[in-house]
Amino acid sequence: MEPGTAMSLGRDALLAGLHANIRKVIERFVEDHLDVAIFESFKAINYRVKEMSSLDLDGSKLMDATLNVTNPKIRFADLSSQTGKDVQQGLHFLFKRAVQAFRNPCS
Fold first, then answer.
1. Which pLDDT belongs to residue 97?
2. Among 5, 26, 3, residue whose Cα is nearest residue 14
3. Closest by Cα among 96, 78, 101 to 88
4. Per-residue pLDDT of the chain (107 residues; tens, 9 = 90+)
């Protein structure tokens, strides 16, 4: 194996590690339509965040209201430490930008 390359996992092993809602979407499209699988996955993520937060928002506004560091509806880390705040902010930005990049342009 070349340095810096990841060990290849089988398709079934990779799919088994995904959330059930994402796995259901991806299994339909990953073989022939990876772009559709990514788009549908981010729609499922957006729906799940909306469901968990009970907010009537969408896309990046939903991610801002739900995952922000100051008053998150969904917490990824202990916000009493700087490390926890950094993790929360990093995942907030990751989800927000991913929704903007992969979901919104396709819509």
1. 92
2. 26
3. 78
4. 444 444 455 666 766 777 787 777 666 666 667 777 778 888 888 999 999 999 999 999 999 999 999 999 999 999 999 999 999 999 999 999 998 887 655 55
Instruction: Give dist(CA 107, CA 101) in Å, integer.
Output: 11
Q: How far is CA 46 from the centre of its chain?
A: 8
Instruction: Give the residue from 48, 77, 83 showing the smallest Cα distance to 63.
Output: 48
* Strands in the chain per DSSP E: none
Q: Helices marked H in the chain — which ranges? A: 11-16, 20-29, 34-53, 59-67, 82-98
* Residue owning tokens 């799919």: 15
What is the CB neighbour count within 10 angstroms for residue 75? 13
pTM for this model (two decimals): 0.68
Q: What is the CA radius of gyration of the chain?
A: 16
